[in-house]
Amino acid sequence: MATGRTADPRPAIDAALARRLVDTQFPQWAELPLRLLDPAGSDHVIYRLGEDLSVRLPRHAGAIRQAMKESEWLPGLAPHLPLAIPVPVGVGEPDFDYPWPWAVSGWLDGEVATAEALADSSRAAVQLAEFLTALQEFVLEDFPLDDAREDLTGRPLADRDRATRAAIAEVDGTFDAAAMTELWDAALSAPGWDRPPVWFHGDFHTGNLLTVNGRLSAVIDFGGLGIGDPACDLTIAFTLMSAGSRAAFRATLGVDDATWTRGRGWALATGLNAYTSYAAVNPRVAAQTTRQITEALIG
């Protein structure tokens, strides 16, 4: 008898599956131990493979292009960037009822960056601005930046309009709905990027930054890597930084008023999306996104 429920489209992922995939497709690493990284991100289940490798298995269909994208672009980007990034060493194929490509990359040591540790660090802010500058300046010979492929084309901010306004209404009373609406209207009406398209990370927030001994060491998770308007990467200024370090970040990066306003819009929209999706069940996300929304409103 039908129950009205739809089947969960996410595949079951456990250590046994990861072990079978590695052993059959990369037998040279069959003797290396697998250890689950917990908590991992919302897009991948991650295992450490031996001491020097990681295995990343997409949890859902929205993340299935990341393995191929990172394999194609990160080896070329890595030598040009001032912070370490993952270097892919293999892309696995679907097997054992697991439906999607998956990745093996070099392991990067470090702890996830936190606002508690780095919010007031102008040094960290300048490092991040220098990283984004290097990323934006990266030019690959024979690759036309003004004609980016579909998988490198980011969604425009306006695509988030309906969902963002709905979220503003939903959290009215928790946050200042009038101030959020004013910022959102300003971000949508700000002049667009009028310079040649540049590379952007696409998901540049604290969860994708690693630190060693309290200092920034690496940037991870390039699933949103693309070419176009870099305003989306300004989200880091509102997830990690305080007003003082944010000023150092903006000055080093040389961000104009229109791009900064669009960046505040990205921070507001992504913060609201995460807050309305996870805050009720995840106190950590609630605290992080509350800070992100509040800082975006400050500017």
Mean pLDDT across residues: 92
Roughly how much helix do the residues carry, as a percent range? 25-40%
The percentage of residues in β strands lies in 5-15%
The succession of helices and strands, N to C, reads HEEEHEEEHHHHEEEEHHHH
Low-confidence parts: 1-8
Rg for CA atoms: 20 Å
Largest sheet features: 5 strands, antiparallel
Name the strands of the widest sheet in spatial order.
1-2-3-5-4
Number of helices: 10
Q: How many strand segments? A: 10
Shape verdict: globular
Q: Quote the distance from N terminus to C terminus.
A: 55 Å
Describe this protein's structure:
Residues 1-8 have low confidence and may be disordered. α4 packs parallel to α8 (243-253), α5 packs antiparallel against α6 and α9 packs antiparallel against α10. The N and C termini lie far apart (55 Å). The strands form 3 sheets. Strands 1-2-3-5-4 form a 5-stranded antiparallel beta sheet, sandwiched between helices. Strands 6-8-9 form a 3-stranded antiparallel beta sheet, with no helix packed on it. A two-stranded antiparallel ribbon has the order 7-10. It is globular and about 55 Å long. It contains 10 helices and 10 strands. With 299 residues, the protein is an alpha+beta fold.
